[in-house]
Task: inverse folding
């Protein structure tokens, strides 16, 4: 092995049941380097990391071909404990924290510090005393390294997601002898300021000598923070680049194998002289962390209304409240009908579809197939995809399979077949299944929250182009809630900015960056185009 590198993975090849998902992939990372691993969802990034961490899914399916060298020696990593003992840690995209435990207890989980006492000397080490004071000091030291000024004994439950991400990092750097850290989409759930702080912490860790492998789909972060980039496509290594010698556009094109053009939406004439298809009056939502504090908003038939704003200030609460997932007050007026205290089943029956920002808990049945997830709502709410045998009904397996396969083709869902369990798909492909389920409901209005979170640029284009196509070809009315302002500006007819649970104002996509920035900061803009309550015509 070249002693210059801390990690070298050479000629890595992996197949699942005859399907090759990695083919002769190399990866080399130096101490103190921030190295970005790029690729579309399904490109093989997760499989490569599973190999590095010795995960059971690799060794129970025939292992892999190739070699791993770490810290100058060839290694046989058979489990996550082997990886941890080498000094390899991982900050996961999905949080691995126990809510009812304190920050300290989460940081020290399975590595608790103990000391002997009279009872343990007689009856064995399982009865040792936990050294809470020493654990607290260690936790405080780890939290200080990530600049987290928070009491180390506070319970994790109820903390903002940004705090949880930094606790995950603190837990990894508290481990003895950590030399290599993998960050898997760490900024996907963070606000812009939190993401900026995280990148600063990553650079601080790298400067201390820790090697960092950064997996992200945010190309601006790649250019800002990384030293080198490795790009995978369809399980193969397609490029190794010095970050200083490439651009975000070139990276995007390498990832998908074609030129990427995130085109804007065609200008559409919306008839706002008619009654709105959906109107909110003094609408309030008690959604923890995303409370809506009384808004007035009109949605007109055939338009795409974007809802933006910083995390935690109420933008996600609007769609969740409309769907009855959290307690509400005020009125929803849908096609002239007043609705108070909406119920989820009721809103689905009224042909409103919802793609939640929480795909794991709300959007999907993780341990069910793509087929079942695709038709689940249409089957249960509309009674579709069923065969009626007079005294009983059964699923129409043929139609279900045909629909799922059509959605797999249209949305480019990367899978083995339509019967694959959704829990085995990558995050981006799970997101596409959420959209497939919503579309199969044949809605008149679709509410989509953070539809591109955690998915690659190629998948983003598919999702955004699909929403524009549905709007253009079928006059579908859409509310898209997103933290990605550029995406909102590329797809929306109007954009409502939410601050402190209120609508700060509504802008046109072509309005200036300064105006968007002012509204997102909670400052008003004097305009002659309409009021600040959303009643713009």
Result:
């Amino acid at each position: 092995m070249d002693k210059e590198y801390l990690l070298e993975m050479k000629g890595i090849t992996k197949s699942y049941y005859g399907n090759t998902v990695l083919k002769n992939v190399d990866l080399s990372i130096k101490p103190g380097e921030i190295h970005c691993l790029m690729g579309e969802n399904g490109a093989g990034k997760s499989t490569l990391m599973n190999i590095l961490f010795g995960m059971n899914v690799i060794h129970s399916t025939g292992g892999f071909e190739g070699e791993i060298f770490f810290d100058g020696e060839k290694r046989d990593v058979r489990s996550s404990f082997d990886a941890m003992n080498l000094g390899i840690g991982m900050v996961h995209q999905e949080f691995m924290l126990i809510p009812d435990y304190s920050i300290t207890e989460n940081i020290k989980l399975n590595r608790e510090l103990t000391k002997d006492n009279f009872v343990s000397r007689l009856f064995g080490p399982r009865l040792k005393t936990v050294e809470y004071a020493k654990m607290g000091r260690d936790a405080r030291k780890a939290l200080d390294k990530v600049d987290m000024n928070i009491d180390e004994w506070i319970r994790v439950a109820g903390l903002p997601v940004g705090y949880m991400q930094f606790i995950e990092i603190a837990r990894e750097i508290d481990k003895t002898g950590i030399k290599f850290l993998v960050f898997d989409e760490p900024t996907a759930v963070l606000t812009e300021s939190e993401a900026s702080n995280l990148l600063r912490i990553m650079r601080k860790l790298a400067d201390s000598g820790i090697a960092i492998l950064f997996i992200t789909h945010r190309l601006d972060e790649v250019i800002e923070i990384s030293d080198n980039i490795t790009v995978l496509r369809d399980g193969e290594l397609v490029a190794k680049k010095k970050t200083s010698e490439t651009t975000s556009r070139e990276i995007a094109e390498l990832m998908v194998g074609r030129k990427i053009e995130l085109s804007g939406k065609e200008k559409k004439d919306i008839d706002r002289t008619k009654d709105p298809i959906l109107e909110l009056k003094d609408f309030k939502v008690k959604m923890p962390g995303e409370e809506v504090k009384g808004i007035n908003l009109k949605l007109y038939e055939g338009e795409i209304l974007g809802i933006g704003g910083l995390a935690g200030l109420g933008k996600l609460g609007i769609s969740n409240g409309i769907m009855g997932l959290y307690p509400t007050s005020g009125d929803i007026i849908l096609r002239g009908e007043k609705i108070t205290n909406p119920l989820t089943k009721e809103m689905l029956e009224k042909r409103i579809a919802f793609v939640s920002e929480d795909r794991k808990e709300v959007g999907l049945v993780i341990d069910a197939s793509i087929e079942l997830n695709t038709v689940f709502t249409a089957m249960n709410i509309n009674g579709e995809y069923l065969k009626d045998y007079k005294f009983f009904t059964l699923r129409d397996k043929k139609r279900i399979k045909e629909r799922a396969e059509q959605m797999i083709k249209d949305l480019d869902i990367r899978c083995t077949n339509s019967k694959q369990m959704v829990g085995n798909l990558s995050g981006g492909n799970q997101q596409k299944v959420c959209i497939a389920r919503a579309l199969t409901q044949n809605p008149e209005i679709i509410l989509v929250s953070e539809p591109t979170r955690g998915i690659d640029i190629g998948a983003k284009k598919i999702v955004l182009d699909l929403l524009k196509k549905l709007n253009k070809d079928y006059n579908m009315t859409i509310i898209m809630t997103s933290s990605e302002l550029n995406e909102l500006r590329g797809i929306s007819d109007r954009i409502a900015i939410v601050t402190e649970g209120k609508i700060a104002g509504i802008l046109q996509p072509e309005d200036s960056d300064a105006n968007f920035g002012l509204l997102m900061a909670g400052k008003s803009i004097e305009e002659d185009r309409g009021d600040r309550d959303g009643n713009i015509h």
